Amino acid sequence: MVDYIARDGVALLQVNNPPVNALSHHVRVAIEEGLKKAGQDPRIKSIVISGKGSFIAGADIKDVSKPTILELCDLIESSGKPVVAAIKGFALGGGHEIAISCHYRIAHEKSKFGFPEVDIGILPAAGGTQRFPRLVGLEAALDLIPSGRHIGAAQAFKLGIVDKVVRGDAVEEAVKFAKSIAGEPLVDRRTSQRPVMGAENAFLAAAVKLAMKKKKGMIAPIVCLSVSFMGSLLPFEQGIQVEAAEAVVVFTSGQMGALQYAFFAQRAAPKWLLPCGASFKTVKGRPIRNAAVIGAGTMGTGITMAMLNAGIPVTLVEQDRKFLDKGVSLLKLLYAGSVSLRKITQDQCDAILSKLNTAVGYKSLTNVDLVIEAVYENMALKKQIFAELDRICPPETFLWTNTSALDIDEIASATRRPDKVLGTHFFVPAYHMKLLENVRGKLTSAETVASAQMFGTRIGKIPVVVGNCHGFVGNRMLHKYVYEADFLIEEGCWPEDVDMVAENFGLPLGPFKVRDLSGLDIRVRGLLEQAKAAGIEINPATRFLNGERISLLSKSLVDKGHCGRKTGRGFYNYGKPGGKIPLNDRFIKDVIVEYCAERGIERRKVAYQEIEERLFLPLINEGFKILEEGIASKPEDIDTIWLLGYAWPRHTGGPMYYANMVGLDKIYNRICHYNELHKHSAHWQPSLLLKKLAASKTPMKDWMEVAQASSKL
Ligand SMILES: CCCCCCC/C=C/C(=O)SCCNC(=O)CCNC(=O)[C@H](O)C(C)(C)COP(=O)(O)OP(=O)(O)OC[C@H]1O[C@@H](n2cnc3c(N)ncnc32)[C@H](O)[C@@H]1OP(=O)(O)O
C-alpha cells in the first residue's frame, strides 16, 4: 500500500494503491507508520511523499475510518524533519491537503491540483479550508475550493502551491532536493502558521454569488466559502474546529450521498450488460481505425469534430457540394475559435484538420470501419441511405445512425447487416456534450455494442447502452415532462410559474425557456407528424391523439408567428429576434387565456407542490417502466443519462435516486393520485416495478430482485 524506501538519508514513502492511490484506511495507516519510522530513524534526515504512477487522488470515498486525513496532515506538518511532496499526476482532495501539509512541493509539469470535494458533497475537511487560504491567500482560495476544478502545475506554481515545476522525474528531483535541505529550519514552511493574505469581505460576496450560479442548489460550496472565510479571521486551531463542525452539517445534508452516488453511477454506466447475458466482461469491441459521417449539418459536423479530436480520421460526406462546404466552414470556424481562445494551438488545429477528408456521395466509402449517418430525422431518407451504404461499404463496416427517437430496427431492416446497425444518440453540441446513448436494436450484435461503447469512451463520452423504443431513455422520459408542462399551462399556470418550479428544483432552465430556445415550431412539427401518422387531422378543437390528451398551445403561438427566441417571442417576449432576456408578456397570457376559452378549459390556481409533482413524477414513473422493460439495464444508467444529457441537478443524484430518496411508496402513491385525476394520460399509469418496490419497501438498489421475482414484469 505504501512502499518505504530509505536511501542516502532520505525516506521515500511511495503510495501504491491503484487505480488512483486513494487514501483508503490501509494507506493512511501505512503513511502514519512510515512517518513515525522515518522520524525515529537517526539516519533519516528528510522525507519525500509520492505516489506510484500518480500522486494521491484524495480520500477513498467509501472509507472514513481512522486515522483521519486531518491527523495525517498534522503529523506531516509537525515533523521535525523536512517533508517534500513529489507530485505527478493528480493531487486532489485529501491528496492535495497532504501535499500542502508537506514543507515543500515539487511537481511534474503535467500534474493537476484541485479540491473536488464539493462535487461529491463534502468539504476539504482535512484542514484544507484552513491551510489553503494560508498558502495562496484568501482570494485564490475562495476561487478554487468551491469550484472543484483542477488546475495545472504552471498555475499552481503561480499561486504558490508548488515550489518547483520539473519536466523530468519529480520523485528523483524531490529526493535530490530533500537531501539538500536536510537539517534546515522549518518554521516558515509550516503552512498552518502563516497569516491569511487578503482577508477581505469583498472576495466572499463575489465568490458566494459565483458559487450560487455555478453550483446551483449545492450546499458544500457555500459552506466551504464560509468556513474558509471564517478561518481567515481566526487562529488556525479555531478554524479547524469550525471546519469540523461545518463538515458535519454537510455530511448529514443528504447531498453527499446523492453526489457520491452520481460519481459512481457515471463510472458504472459504461459497463454494459445485455438481456442475453453478454457484457463488457465477456465481449470485446473492434477498434475504429477510420470513419465516415453522413450529413454536414449541426449534428454531423459535431460528431465529426468529436472523432477528429480523438485522432480518428473522418470523411465527412454530403450529397451536395454546397452543403458540404457550409459544414466544413462551420467546423473550421469552431476550431479557429478554439485556437483564439487558446484551448488548442495552431499546430494542434492543423494536425486535427489533417485527418479530415470530404466527399460528395457515398462511392468512396469502400474502406471504412464505421459510418455514422447524421441526416435529419426522416425514416424514409435514413432507410434509403442505409440501403445504399449497405451496398457500398464492406460487409464488416459498422453502420450507425444518429437519431434521438427513431426506430433502429426499422432502419436496420434496410440492410443485410442488422447486427452491425446501432443508434448513436449524440447530444448538442456533439463535440462537447459528454453523453452518448448507444441504442441496440433487436438484431444488434454484442460485438457491435462492445465496439460502440469502446468508441464512445475513446471520443471522450460516457457511453450508455439503451434499448430501442421511441425516444430511447432520455427523450422518452423528457416527453412526459414536456406534456405535463403544457397541461399545467392549460389548467391555470403561466409559463414563468412552471419554469420557476423547475429551476428551483435545480434545472438550469424551465421547460418553456428551453422550448423558446429550441424553437416552438420544432415541437409543433413533431406533433403534426405524429397526428399524420395516426391518420388524424388536427383542428383547433383537437384535445386527444390516439386517446391521449395533447396540447396545441405551442401551435397557437406558432400560428401567430411566435416560434421562440429566434422570432423574439414564444412563451416569453425577448424584445427582438435573437433576444436573450425572457420577459413575461401580457400578449402571450392573452393567447393562453383565449386558447383555454375556445376549448372550454377552466383555469384555476395550481399549487407549487402540484406543479413540481406533475413535472417530475411522470418522468420518474417512465424511468421505472424503462427499467422493467429492460430498455435500461440499471437505474445508474438512467440517472447518468439525466445528469449528463439533461442537466438534472446532480445533488439529487438523478431521477431514480431522487425517487428513492423521497421514498418509493410516497412516489407511487402520488402517481396513483394523479392517475385517478388524469385518465387520458398513459404516463400516469403507475409502473408495475415501482408498485412492487413500493409495496415490498425494497430500496431501488435492490430492484433486480423484485423484477426477477415478479412474473408480470
Ligand atoms: C469521505 C470523507 C472523508 C473526510 C475527509 C475530507 C477530506 C478529503 C476528502 C477527499 O479527498 S474526497 C475525494 C476527493 N477526490 C476526488 O473526488 C477524486 C475523484 N476521482 C477523480 O476525479 C478521477 O477518478 C481521477 C482521479 C481524475 C482519475 O480519473 P480517471 O478517468 O483516470 O479514472 P476514473 O475512471 O475516474 O477512476 C478509476 C477508478 O477509481 C475509482 N475512484 C476514483 N477516485 C476514487 C476515490 N476518491 N475513492 C474511491 N474510488 C475512486 C473510480 O470509481 C474508478 O473505479 P472503477 O470504476 O474502475 O471501479
TrEMBL record:
Organism placement in taxonomy: Eukaryota, Metazoa, Spiralia, Lophotrochozoa, Annelida
UniProt record similarity statement: In the C-terminal section; belongs to the 3-hydroxyacyl-CoA dehydrogenase family.
Domain of life of the organism encoding this protein: Eukaryota
Residues in 3-hydroxyacyl-CoA dehydrogenase NAD binding domain copies: 291-468
Keywords: Fatty acid metabolism, Isomerase, Lipid metabolism, Lyase, Multifunctional enzyme, NAD, Oxidoreductase, Peroxisome
Organism of provenance: Capitella teleta
Subunit and partners: Monomer.
Molecular-function GO terms, alphabetical: (3S)-3-hydroxyacyl-CoA dehydrogenase (NAD+) activity; delta(3)-delta(2)-enoyl-CoA isomerase activity; enoyl-CoA hydratase activity; NAD+ binding
InterPro entries (UniProt xref): 3-OHacyl-CoA_DH_NAD-bd, 3HC_DH_C, 6-PGluconate_DH-like_C_sf, ClpP/crotonase-like_dom_sf, Enoyl-CoA_hydra/iso, NAD(P)-bd_dom_sf
GO process terms (BP): fatty acid beta-oxidation
Segments forming domain 3-hydroxyacyl-CoA dehydrogenase C-terminal: 471-574, 613-697
Catalytic activity, reaction form: (3E)-hexenoyl-CoA = (2E)-hexenoyl-CoA; (3S)-hydroxyhexadecanoyl-CoA = (2E)-hexadecenoyl-CoA + H2O; a (3S)-3-hydroxyacyl-CoA + NAD(+) = a 3-oxoacyl-CoA + NADH + H(+); (3S)-hydroxyhexanoyl-CoA = (2E)-hexenoyl-CoA + H2O
Subcellular location as annotated: Peroxisome
Record's protein name: Peroxisomal bifunctional enzyme
Major localization class: other
E.C. designation(s): 1.1.1.35, 5.3.3.8
Cellular compartments per GO CC: peroxisome
Pathway, per record: Lipid metabolism; fatty acid beta-oxidation
Ranges annotated as spanning the membrane: none
